[in-house]
Amino acid sequence: MPPSLPLKAGLLASALLLSGCPEVPETVLLSDGFAPMTAECLHPSLNGSRPLPAAFSLLSWNIYKQQGDWQRELNHWADGSELLLLQEARSSPELEQWLQKRNYHWFQVVAFNWEQQANGVLTAAVGQASRVCGQRIREPATRIPKSLLFSYYSLEGAEQQLLVVNLHAVNFSLRGRTYQQQLDRISGFIENYGGPVIVAGDFNRWNPRRERLLHRWAEQEQLSEAVPMPDHRTRFAGYPLDAVFYRGLELDDVQSMRSEASDHGPLKASFRVKSSDKP
């Protein structure tokens, strides 16, 4: 793990600012089936949509704006994944065609536009979401937004829908206040939710303060972390940046892989509905 990852993030933010000020548009949500939306939330129709299977796999990956040979790696890792969570996704015809070819339904939060392309978290699934909500939160130093996406999916064998949270955490909140605010926003959706929950993405956990905040928050929300063994996750100062947290599900397997296309490696986790939750 290169020790300069936060520095690289800072340099990238500086490059964005110097190359023509990223635009934060009115549009909040993009998708494969709906016009661009300025509203934060949408309730798509589930007519004709199939639920996720009772046993399913999820791939979470900071794709680094598709700057490397992302298609080769994603072709391999996403195989058999019913859910795909991307961070630093950059809207492009190539990515949209890749998703369409594999029959994924997707939503993306427009954190900002750069060079006329949307950047932000993107969640794709083999089934249509019943509800989606996208949010932005600005970095305290650069004012460039990070994004959150909340998606609800019908799940075979479960009494309540699966809530999936895709997160790209703020990077430059040195005192941790904005970082905690982002976690609190997630709590606003999950703390009183009785169904199964997954929170995954790039948590930018790179110092002891963030580790403490994240651990305390996960404990408060009764979330377990899916820790891969062996653990190849990208690290800074010994702390893994990416993670998958969950509750109300059985974890069957979790793997971490190294990437040559991104400065983050992906995480792939397999879950199934708890026997006690089956009707």
Could you give the topology of this structure?
Layout: H1 5-18, E1 29-31, E2 41-42, E3 55-62, H2 70-77, E4 83-90, H3 93-101, E5 105-109, E6 112-114, E7 117-125, E8 131-138, E9 145-153, E10 162-168, H4 177-190, E11 197-202, H5 208-220, E12 224-225, E13 235-236, E14 239-240, E15 242-247, E16 249-256, E17 267-273
Record field, number of beta strands: 17
- Give the overall form: globular
CATH class: Alpha Beta
As for the CATH topology, it is Deoxyribonuclease I, Chain A
The helix fraction, in percent, is 10-25%
Written description of the protein model:
The chain has 279 residues and is α+β, with helices and mostly antiparallel strands. It has a single domain (5-274), classed as 4-Layer Sandwich (Deoxyribonuclease I, Chain A), CATH 3.60.10.10. It is 21% helix and 34% strand. Strands 1, 3, 4, 5, 6, 7, 16 and 17 form an eight-stranded mixed β-sheet that branches. The chain has a seven-stranded mixed β-sheet with strand order 2-8-9-10-11-15-12, with helices on one face. Helix 4 (177-190) packs parallel to helix 5 (208-220). The longest helix is centred in the first third of the chain and has 14 residues, at 5-18. The chain is globular, with a radius of gyration of 17 Å. 43% of the residues are buried.
Which descriptors would you attach to this protein?
279 residues; alpha+beta; Deoxyribonuclease I, Chain A; eight-stranded mixed sheet; seven-stranded mixed sheet; 5 helices; 34% strand
Give a quick rundown of the structure.
The chain is an alpha+beta fold and 279 residues long.
